[in-house]
């Protein structure tokens, strides 16, 4: 790979590019094709950016900021009406055809073998024949998602849902309306578009949508500018915040404190803005408290019983080589996991994965044995 040409395309000096490789920029030839991955944002290049050569660059997906107080955030951020889409709870991928191969990139810029198999199965190859520079930005969701397993979506294994598009070598996104039109044209699943709302009505309409989504176990919404002139913002349900806490507190010592704190703060702002009555507020308090204490108790009880604390997930692959490649993918990401032997099933093979959460295991065991905090 010509680092000088890559640096010039990225707007970085050749000397700085050479210094970054091996530190903030990682070179890899597995899975193919050979590429450079930006582990961190540096020199104006987003984290998760992947460079295959100077003409094959897939920029990292931009971070979407969050509305804490919905109505004031809408008024300060948008100048006209807004489009409202569902924010699905899975893992973010960018799918593109690079150097003759369709690949699915995680938010961190890794080529995920499992997500790539799903993308190749569910996205028609014709779309890249017609649009060679296209980058499909979407969410992988379903009960057999090894990153975020959720059984609230109509998927038996894991499905791809499109929510935006971009182009190789470009940072800008194409926006909601053109993305949904493209999905309809090629028969690709896309996130639900609830409609367009004026600023005066948007806050109350979004609250109704979020209440309904939360009641069905869904995450929340993404709010977009119809003309694609403003960056989108996100807003999530109380139930989603509490489910995140419930999952994380099961493995309390393997998650950063900001993960817990930010979700509790969201609950405080939402409870205030939604002007809940005493009954609704107490229900929220109970939901929030239970989401933290119940999983902690299960973890401690399991360790007292001598059980190992593990995260168990299951994936379904069509090709056994995908399972082998996904195990190597986890190893390269530094994830400690045990992969059970594949079991045949209709349409492929099931693989159970036990992710080892060593910090929570060790901390809980030491406390149970009498160590002081």
Outline the structure in words:
The chain is built from twelve helices and 17 strands. By secondary structure, it is α+β, with helices and mostly antiparallel strands. Among the domains are: 3-58, Nuclear Transport Factor 2, Chain: A; 238-304, Methane Monooxygenase Hydroxylase, Chain G, domain 1 (Up-down Bundle), CATH 1.20.58; 310-368, Alpha-Beta Plaits, CATH 3.30.70. It is globular. It starts with a helix and ends in a 5-residue tail after the last helix.
**Unreliably modeled segments:** none
Structural class: alpha+beta
Shape: globular
Oligomer: single chain
Helix count equals 12
Number of strands: 17
Range of strand content: 15-25%
What is the level-2 CATH architecture name of the domain at 238-304? Up-down Bundle
Question: Could you tell me the mean pLDDT?
Answer: 96
Which sequence of SSEs, written as H and E, runs from N to C?
HHEEEEEHEEEHHEEHEHEEHHHEHEEEH
Helix content: 25-40%
Question: What's the CATH topology label of the domain at 238-304?
Answer: Methane Monooxygenase Hydroxylase, Chain G, domain 1
Short structural summary:
This protein is α+β, with helices and mostly antiparallel strands.
Structure characteristics:
Alpha-Beta Plaits; 24% strand; five-stranded mixed beta sheet; Nuclear Transport Factor 2, Chain: A; 17 strands; four-stranded antiparallel beta sheet; 373 residues; 40% helix; 12 helices
């Amino acid at each position: 790979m010509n680092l000088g040409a890559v640096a010039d395309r990225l707007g970085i000096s050749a000397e700085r590019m050479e210094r970054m490789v091996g530190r903030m920029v990682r070179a890899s030839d597995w899975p193919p094709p050979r590429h450079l991955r930006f582990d961190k944002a540096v020199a104006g290049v987003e984290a998760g950016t992947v460079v295959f050569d100077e003409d094959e660059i897939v920029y990292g997906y931009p971070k979407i900021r969050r509305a804490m107080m919905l109505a004031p955030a809408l008024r300060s951020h948008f100048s006209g009406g807004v489009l409202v889409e569902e924010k699905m709870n899975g893992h973010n991928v960018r799918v593109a055809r690079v150097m003759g191969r369709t690949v699915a990139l995680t938010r961190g810029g890794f080529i995920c073998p499992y997500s790539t198999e799903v993308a190749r199965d569910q996205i028609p190859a014709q779309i890249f024949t017609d649009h060679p520079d296209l980058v499909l930005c979407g969410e992988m969701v379903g009960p057999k998602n090894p990153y975020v397993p959720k059984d609230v979506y109509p998927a038996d294994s894991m499905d791809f849902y499109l929510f935006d598009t971009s182009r190789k070598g470009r940072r800008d996104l194409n926006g909601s309306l053109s993305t949904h039109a493209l999905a309809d044209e090629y028969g690709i699943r896309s996130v639900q578009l609830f409609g367009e709302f004026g600023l005066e009505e948007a806050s109350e309409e979004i609250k109704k949508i979020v209440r309904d989504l939360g009641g069905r176990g869904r995450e929340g919404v993404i709010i977009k500018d119809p003309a694609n002139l403003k960056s989108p913002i996100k807003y999530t349900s109380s139930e989603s915040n509490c489910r995140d806490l419930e999952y994380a507190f099961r493995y309390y010592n393997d998650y950063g404190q900001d993960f817990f704190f930010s979700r509790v703060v969201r609950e405080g702002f939402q409870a205030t803005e939604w002007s809940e009555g005493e009954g609704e507020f107490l229900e929220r308090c109970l939901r929030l408290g239970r989401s933290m204490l119940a999983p902690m108790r299960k973890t401690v009880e399991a360790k007292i019983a001598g059980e190992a604390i593990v995260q168990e997930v299951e994936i379904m692959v069509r090709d056994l080589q995908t399972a082998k490649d996904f195990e190597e993918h986890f190893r390269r990401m530094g994830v400690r996991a045990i992969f059970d032997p594949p079991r045949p099933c209709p349409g492929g093979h099931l693989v159970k994965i036990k992710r080892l959460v060593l910090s929570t295991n060790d901390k809980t065991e030491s406390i149970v044995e009498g160590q002081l905090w």
